[in-house]
């Protein structure tokens, strides 16, 4: 009896932990590669509507006289990228973007076609940066970007934590049904049989 109780408690605890981990990402809003856009030297300014509410939260500005491209806050959204000093840092996946980081709301990617306020970036190679913006409160997010000298910037994808909590670079929402799958995995074969039997009895 004690052994069965222990096993059951362990399974329940495991499921609770797995579900909690899944729910922790439940409020992450993700925009994939289908939403990618570019701002290019020789082109026009490009707005970035981070939360897709119809109002730009940041603006990629192109100054063709100086071959200059920067990103700034738009419409009072308090946009800012995570910086070290004045430089936008290329972050590794897993880096935590939160209120404890330093942010700058005006970052020059290219000046005279060359890299300007950037740290750890390689021309033509994608990287990640953290950011914040205001949408009914401060939100924290990450973006994947490729900066190419004498060309421009492409934002490939991005995500933000809608609850206002911190977010790890690279985190996206769990796929639909992940919680159920993880729960069944934790239950094991006996749990799967019980779950199937329960479903059959309701059919």
Automatic annotation (TrEMBL):
<feature type="signal peptide">
    <location>
        <begin position="1"/>
        <end position="26"/>
    </location>
</feature>
<keyword id="KW-0732">Signal</keyword>
<protein>
    <recommendedName>
        <fullName>PEP-CTERM protein-sorting domain-containing protein</fullName>
    </recommendedName>
</protein>
